[in-house]
Amino acid sequence: MCGSIIGTLTLSLSPTLRQNKRRLLLVVFSYNMGRISSYTLAGAIVGAISALLTAPFADGHGYRVLQVLSALVITGAGLYIGGWFPRFAYIEKLGARLWKLIEPFGRRLIPVKTIPQALLFGMIWGWLPCGLIYTALAMAVTSGSVWHSTTTMLAFGLGTLPAVMGVGIMTHWLTKLARIQQFKRVAGVLLIVFGLLAAFPDINPMRVDHIMRF
Known about the structure:
By secondary structure, this protein is mainly α. Helix content is about 75%, strand content about 0%.
């Protein structure tokens, strides 16, 4: 989804701006920095909510409940990408109300002509309902603290940066790859594995124990 959005945004820029490669790169980078900042803020929010919800429970029971729910979301995303659970797409409706409130502000910034406009538009774009982002948030909410949840989403955003920035160059190749069913199934299975590791952390060979803190 992000790839198609950044492609559309790039094409909506003025021909003069698109021909200036340095300026174009700065605008696209600003889009993405705004988007990543929103992901990071979302990570902080879900981390704070997680801390508040689990605080009344002793011995980490509340945290364990969130951990299982997170595992279900991650596993559902894996089944969806693999083509085994198409109804998972309905999870994107969770953020539809918020998106309806902020989307008009983004519309006012189009056409984007300046770097600050691109940054602001990216910050709004970051709240677009997306199942993959919700999956990342599900992982972040079980990270154990507001700080870890925030940095998890920051890392997620930075991880998407090369693909989204380079989509204009590799659009054809990425489109062909996305159509390969075997590739989608492998990606789905990997997410399912991550979901199982989230549900049963004791079997995770990369498990790192840390103290939960607000």
